[in-house]
Amino acid sequence: MGQKVERTPRVLAVMAHPDDAEILVGGTLFHLKALGWEAGIITMTSGDCGSATLTKQEIARIRRAEAQAAAAFLGAWYGCAELLDVEIFANAENQRRVVELMRQFQPDVVLTHSPVDYMVDHEETARLARSASFALSMPLYHTRQNTPAAPTAATPALYYADSVEGIDLAGERLWPQFYIDIGETLARKKEMLSLHASQREWLRTHHGVDEYLDQMTRWAASYGRECGATYAEGFRQHLGHGYPHAPVLQQALKSYSKSGSKSGSKRRIHQ
Ligand SMILES: [Zn+2]
Q1: Does the pLDDT value for residue 217 go beyond 80?
Q2: Distance 163 CA to ligand 1 centre (A)
């Protein structure tokens, strides 16, 4: 009695746009997959503003397919909340959509955007992921679907990825609590990102170089320099009341987890 049934751990990236998961947490997702975890990716939008030449419907169809293919390359489940670019807001209706998708996947660990980021879409996604994670296991929180997914057994551990370029709104470094060394998975992260061909081509046409992949690699290298790795991704764990405080991700990836010179010392957990 009271015996816990062991199940395969499940990590879910809850991100704003197609390609955000790849850029911000892709290397970490490949590590977890290699350990036998199940992985999923939810994007709030299908990337309907990601073109200067196509219609909204055309680019959304292309980018939804690219996101699906990139998730398949990782071996991950994919869901899209079908919100619109630059119109992601943490309101009740959108939260019901996000909770429904998250319940379909039943995550143990959720990775989302930094609550402070360059774009409001990212910040609002972080708010939605935070409040949805809290609501996931509540049986009386209803998503108003005809056949709703079941609530989860517990609140998932919640982690924030580095903001884009790792900075806050004043351009100061938002220091991660810990980093994951992604030297071994960078090549696959890059290949996964390259499946977002419409965005890669768009930047390649405008810059004349492969800025899409180069920029992601430069960022990973700069986070790596902060923690003594060649390439890294940075994270902060949500340690507010009611969310799991156990360092699930840090422990699962113990051999890749690193603290930087300015991080790692601020964890306070009541014993
Ligand atoms: Zn984005």
Answers
A1: yes
A2: 10
Q: Rounded to the nearest whole angstrom, what is the distance from the C-alpha of residue 68 to the centroid of ligand 1?
A: 16
d(CA 154, CA 133): 9
Q: 146 C-alpha to center of ligand 1: Å?
A: 31
In terms of Cα–Cα distance, which of 21, 1, 23 is closest to 11?
21
268 CA distance to ligand 1 centroid (A)?
31
In angstroms, what is the span from residue 271 Cα to ligand 1's centroid? Answer: 37
Ligand 1 centroid distance, CA of 23 (Å): 9
Instruction: Give the separation between CA 267 and CA 271, rounded to whole angstroms.
Output: 12
pLDDT-derived band at 3 (thresholds 50, 70, 90) equals: low
Distances (CA, A) of 120 to 166, 176, 183: 15, 20, 30
Domains located in the chain, CATH noted: 10-258 (3.40.50.10320)
pLDDT digits (tens, 9 = 90+) for 55-93: 999 999 999 999 999 999 999 999 999 999 999 999 999
For 70, phi then psi, to 5°, come to -65, -40
Per-residue pLDDT of 189-213, as tens digits, reads 999 999 999 999 888 887 777 889 9
Q: How far is the CA of 200 from the centre of ligand 1 (A)?
A: 14
pLDDT computed for residue 2 by the predictor: 56
pLDDT at 4: 66
pLDDT at res. 270: 44
**Buried b vs exposed e over 226-235: b needs ≥16 C-beta within 10 Å?**
bbebebbbbb
* d(CA 78, ligand 1 centre) in Å: 16
